[in-house]
Specification:
single chain, alpha/beta, six-stranded parallel β-sheet, 15% strand
Length: 201
């Protein structure tokens, strides 16, 4: 019996997933959550075989939860579900030791087969996501530019970023201008959007 934990914030989709998996004689859903913050404490308690996680969860996103699960509950393998095939997310998922990565529009049979395969220690990745990752352009920003953009994405202004990184305000502005130019963005907000969609933030 494969014991599964599900985390998906869309109520109808989560209930549909639970109902679908409960039809399978060899799969048992042991817990379901709408928030990423619930995953780790319950996984430590229940020790599921597979955690099926939405990539975008409130509280803690699925990729962060997957990385923490790998450390805290290493016998629990994780499978990500996403509606957006962003190439950067696949790279981040592999770095977080995710065993499976499927698009949400996959067929029910494909999902169930993937859960069984992941439980056996296999890796299952949607071919469309692999192709998108292979076609992806390299990340053009320097580590410092990425660091400045990450702080900007968290709502910090130039003066706050400068204080955090021990830089002058002018240097921070120069970094942000460079980021906007390199990403062909309209402004800082657009640069943050582009970087997030590429999975660089």
């Amino acid at each position: 019996m494969v014991r599964v934990l599900i985390a998906e914030d869309m109520h109808m989709l989560r209930k549909a997933l639970v109902a679908l998996l409960e039809f399978e004689p060899d799969i048992e859903v042991v817990a379901e959550f709408s928030s990423g913050a619930d995953i780790l404490p319950r996984a430590k308690e229940l020790r599921p075989d597979v955690a099926v996680l939405d990539i975008d969860l409130p509280g803690m996103d699925g990729l962060t939860a997957a990385a923490e699960l790998h450390t805290a509950v290493p016998e629990c393998r994780t499978m990500m579900l996403t509606s957006l095939g962003r190439p950067g997310n696949l790279r981040r998922a592999l770095a977080a030791h995710v065993s499976g990565f499927l698009l949400k529009d996959s067929t029910p049979d494909k999902l169930c087969d993937a859960i069984r395969a992941v439980a056996k220690g296999e890796r299952v990745i949607d071919p469309q996501l692999v192709l998108a990752a292979l076609d992806d352009k390299p990340q053009p920003l320097t580590p410092r530019e990425l660091e400045v953009l990450l702080l900007a994405s968290q709502g910090e202004g130039s003066a706050q970023i400068a204080a955090r990184l021990y830089l002058s305000v002018g240097t921070v502005r120069n970094y942000l201008t460079s980021v906007v130019t390199k990403l062909n963005a309209r402004n800082r907000v657009d640069a943050i959007r582009i970087a997030r969609e590429a999975g660089w933030l």
